[in-house]
Write a structure and sequence with these properties.
The complex is a heterodimer of chains A (about 300) and B (about 300). Chain A has about 300 residues and is mostly helical. Chain A is built from 14 helices and no strands. In chain A, helix 2 crosses helix 13 and helix 8 crosses helix 10. Chain A is globular, with a radius of gyration of 25 Å. Chain B is mainly α. Chain B is built from 14 helices and no strands. Chain B has one domain: Orthogonal Bundle (MetI-like fold), CATH 1.10.3720. In chain B, helix 1 packs across helix 14, helix 9 packs across helix 11 and helix 11 runs antiparallel to helix 14. The chains are: A mainly alpha (about 300), B mainly alpha (about 300). The interface between A and B is large, with 111 and 112 residues.
């Protein structure tokens, strides 16, 4: 508590927490401070508790899951749900599909998107503004609007004779570009725009081609941006549900979110919640760890994608 | 041309399918049928507006969008203001807020469905068992407070009156932190001397909030608002996983997918999808007018 008031003294204005005035330390001051910490506690419980609950349910034995009153801290740890999940060939296949599809989409989107973003961010040409508006509006595109036509294209039922790729990785990789590519181009364009121009000019003056400048000067500089954008695109692809549900039929291509959504018991009233939560933790934990490790960059990338114009 | 591959792929996977959806919406095409579709003009659109299920889905979508965005904005502002102040452990709180955002929607839907469970669910346990215990011992008014909580456990998902509010609460949980983080970024841009000057002028904190913080936060707030509105309007995952195609929670996207894929009515479903797109396009135009792409 003492360190807080030291902070307050130095704090410029702040939000609700900033209302403490170190001068007047009446009882009201302590009430306000208690209310402030209560709010912090509530925010923490609100954001963290559900994920804690998933983990707690996953490691509880079934007897503790189906218990009233509810047991808040597991009394015994049981790995039965996790071993069920990892012995489940279908779920492993779904994880593999998710990994392959998401990784491929990210690599393609970054490869193609970085080139486009380089041009849009560093060069001037006719139609540049139009292209930017087009890309920006595509980042907000409702996937449902093209679900039917994409379905036809995937089945090879359109004006170009293409093979039927329904229920394959390719179908998902292809359709996931609708949301990953515009996002990648948009965020990277802002990133390239913000980079200082001197190095590039020096390279161009020295007679390097634009492609060489891109590969040898800009790309290494852009690496942090590429990592962040790639990570965000990966999360988007990993979490995608609508296309995965619609364009796959079985576990040769079905991804983890579809597998989790379709987990069910023998009857409507018998949901294997322990297994579902174990699978959920397996699918989510890598993301949460990635997000926590890269949190600063992610915050920057998200606000760049959303706020900067 | 370096932009060409990007533009080509965007045209192939987004723009062509969009035009194709619009074209299909004027036909009676069916999925997986070799019959040549006929042009039916605005017939599909007429049918939709005479279809109670569609009107109902539209209503649900509007309710969902308005409620989630309103709650997320108010809660987001409050949380952003709280976190904006200096306190120990601020970084931890800010980081914790990324967790709901990082959890896949499907996972959060399953997770909340379990928490909402009518027998073993933790939310019912808190409301029906723990809260009354918490307040019961307080003299005089304890009984009255305890009496405010429901006596019996609620079937949040199965009960048609509770289903939509419960799903709305899940969306609010998942996206409020993200909203708060966007607004926090907006708050941090506001220079602190603005506040110092007004404190000298004797403005109260409440006045400062309404007359300075909120107007200065406006750009960030507008962008966050429209982003959320777009997302809420096309909501599919959370509704579909928690309640399937049940009428009391069906949104436009769930309706459109049911028509397109399950019932194979490519024409009618496309018309519904085009209506969703139209509503969102109006919002996108508003958005692109707000963010200026500087002409360099």
């Amino acid at each position: 508590m003492a360190s807080i008031s030291a902070n307050d003294a130095t704090s410029k204005f702040a939000g609700i927490g900033g209302v403490y005035k170190p001068k007047s330390k009446g009882w009201f001051h302590y009430v306000k401070r208690a209310a402030f910490w209560l709010m912090i506690l509530m925010i923490l419980v609100y954001t963290i508790f559900p994920f804690y609950w998933a983990i707690a349910t996953a490691v509880k034995p079934d007897s503790e899951i189906a218990s009233t009153p509810v047991i808040y801290w597991p009394k015994h740890i049981s790995w039965a749900h996790f071993s069920y999940v990892f012995d489940n060939g279908d779920f492993l296949k779904a994880l593999r599909n998710s990994a392959i599809v998401s990784a491929s989409v990210v690599l393609i989107a970054l490869g193609i998107g970085a080139l486009g973003a380089y041009a849009l961010g560093r060069m001037r040409f006719r139609g540049r503004t139009f292209t930017l508006y087009l890309i920006l509006s595509m980042t907000m595109f409702p996937a449902i609007a093209i679900l039917g036509s994409l379905f036809k294209m995937i089945r090879g039922d359109w004006f170009i004779p293409t093979p039927n790729i329904y229920n394959t990785w390719l179908a998902l990789i292809f359709t996931y570009l609708t949301f990953t590519l515009p996002f990648t181009v948009w965020v990277l364009t802002n990133f390239f725009k913000a980079m200082p121009g001197e190095l590039e000019e020096a390279a161009l003056v020295d007679g390097a081609s634009p492609m060489r400048t891109f590969w040898e000067i800009l790309l290494p500089l852009a690496l942090p941006g590429l990592v962040t954008t790639g990570l965000l695109a990966f999360i988007a692809a990993w979490n995608e549900f609508l296309f995965a549900l619609t364009f796959t039929q079985d576990f040769s291509a079905r991804t983890a979110p579809v597998a989790i959504a379709s987990f069910s018991g023998n009857t409507q009233y018998d949901y294997p919640f322990g297994n579902i939560m174990a699978a959920s933790v397996v699918v989510t934990l890598p993301l949460v760890i990635l997000v926590l490790v890269f949190q600063r960059k992610i915050l920057g990338g998200l606000t760049a994608g959303a706020v900067k114009g | 041309m370096l932009v060409f591959p990007s533009v080509f792929i965007v045209a192939l996977v987004a723009i062509y399918p969009l035009f194709e959806s619009v074209r299909l919406s004027f036909t009676n095409a069916r999925l997986g049928s070799s019959r040549v579709p006929e042009n039916v003009g605005f017939g599909n659109y007429q049918r939709l507006f005479n279809d109670d299920a569609f009107i109902n889905a539209f209503k649900n979508t509007v309710i969902f969008t308005v409620t989630t965005v309103a709650f997320e904005t108010v809660l987001g502002i409050i949380i952003a203001l709280v976190i904006h102040s200096n306190f120990r452990g601020r970084g931890v709180v800010r980081t914790s807020m990324l967790i709901p955002w990082a959890i896949p929607t499907v996972v959060s839907a399953q997770l909340w469905r379990w928490m909402y469970n009518d027998v073993y669910g933790v939310i019912n346990d808190i409301l029906v068992v723990r809260m009354p215990q918490l307040f019961d011992w307080i003299p005089f008014i304890g009984d009255d407070i305890a009496g405010l909580f429901p006596e019996r456990k609620i079937a949040f998902i199965a009960d048609p009156t509770w289903a939509l509010p419960s799903i709305i609460a899940v969306d609010i949980w998942k996206t409020t932190p993200f909203m708060a983080l966007l607004l926090l970024a907006g708050l941090q841009v506001i220079p602190s001397d603005v506040y110092e000057a007004s404190t000298v002028d004797g403005a109260s904190k409440w006045q400062q909030f309404w007359q300075m913080t909120l107007p200065l936060l406006r750009p960030a707030l507008l962008v966050a608002l429209i982003f959320r509105t777009l997302d809420a309007f096309r909501v599919f995952d959370v509704v579909f996983v928690m309640r399937g195609v049940a009428p009391e929670t069906m949104t436009l996207a769930v309706y459109a997918r049911q028509q397109l894929i399950d019932l194979q009515r490519l024409g009618l479903g496309s018309a519904a999808a085009v209506i969703i797109f139209g509503c969102i396009a109006v919002l996108v135009i508003m958005y692109t007018r707000l963010v200026r792409i500087e002409e360099t």
